[in-house]
């Protein structure tokens, strides 16, 4: 597959050639295509050759990637073919790259297999947060399971601090009249016991 720039200024005579191969894989039971090599030609002579890595897709699909480049900051999918080659003098970067070599219908790209990794930083952060929330949930369930339930019947005795005795000399009496204008009322002198049923 050759990309020719024609008579566009300084790019006149520049050709980018993509060498694509197709193979049948029994595990996926379908044909896959891959970009095997990329060549830069200028005035019909090869200036640089790059071996392509990890650029493949099912033959009925297209391949898409945000950056296909020979630079390390873009993950370097294009590698110079040899150490002595002039390819090291070239820096090649395709932005919003999409290619399909086979089974093209009506001049449109088919569904694209994207090069995006399954473990992008956003996905990794989501997995870490999910793990933290899962640990918190597990700890909460652990605490709930080991929570001791209250006894069905238990007695509580009121503290003497809440029911202080009025006078020391009248300890024998159970009740003592309160002084008030009008009706006569009584207050219990001894401590109370209560039962709570759950």
Tell me the strand percentage band. 35-45%
Give the mean pLDDT.
77
Gross geometry: elongated
Low confidence ranges: 158-164
Number of strands: 13
Distance between the termini: 82 Å
**Sheet having the most strands:** 6 strands, antiparallel
Number of helices: 1
- Please state the structural category: mainly beta
Using only CA atoms, what is the Rg? 42 Å
**H-E order:** EEEEEEEEEHEEEE
Any idea how many domains?
Answer: 2
Proportion in helices: 10-25%
Describe the structure.
- By secondary structure, the protein is mainly β.
- The protein has two domains: 2-116, no CATH class; 119-155.
- The chain is 13% helix and 39% strand.
- The chain contains one helix and 13 strands.
- The chain has one helix at 121-145; strands spanning 2-4, 14-25, 30-42, 45-52, 56-58, 62-69, 78-80, 93-99, 112-114, 153-157, 175-178, 185-188, 193-197.
- Strands 1, 2, 3, 4, 5 and 7 form a six-stranded antiparallel β-sheet that branches. The chain has a three-stranded mixed β-sheet with strand order 8-6-9, with no helix packed on it.
- A hairpin with a 6-residue loop joins strand 11 (175-178) and strand 12.
- The longest helix has 25 residues, at 121-145.
- It starts with a strand and ends with a strand.
- One of its GO terms (biological process) is regulation of cellular pH.
């Amino acid at each position: 597959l050759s990309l020719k720039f024609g008579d566009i200024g300084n790019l006149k005579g520049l050709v980018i050639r993509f060498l694509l191969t197709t193979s049948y894989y029994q595990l996926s039971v379908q044909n896959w295509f891959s970009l095997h090599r990329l060549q830069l030609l200028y005035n019909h002579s090869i200036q640089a050759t790059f071996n392509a890595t990890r650029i493949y897709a099912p033959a009925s699909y297209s391949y898409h990637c945000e950056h296909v480049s020979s630079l390390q900051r873009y993950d370097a999918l294009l590698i110079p073919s040899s150490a002595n080659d002039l390819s090291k003098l070239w820096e090649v970067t395709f932005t919003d790259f999409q290619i399909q070599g086979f089974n093209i219908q009506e001049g449109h790209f088919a569904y694209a297999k994207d090069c995006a990794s399954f473990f992008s930083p956003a996905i990794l952060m989501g997995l870490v947060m999910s793990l933290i929330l899962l640990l918190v949930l597990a700890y909460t369930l652990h605490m709930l399971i080991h929570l001791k339930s209250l006894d069905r019947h238990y007695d509580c005795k009121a503290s003497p601090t809440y029911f202080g005795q009025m006078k020391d000399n009248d300890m024998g009496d159970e009740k003592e009249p309160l002084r008030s204008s009008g009706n006569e009322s009584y207050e219990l002198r001894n401590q109370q016991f209560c039962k709570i049923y759950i």
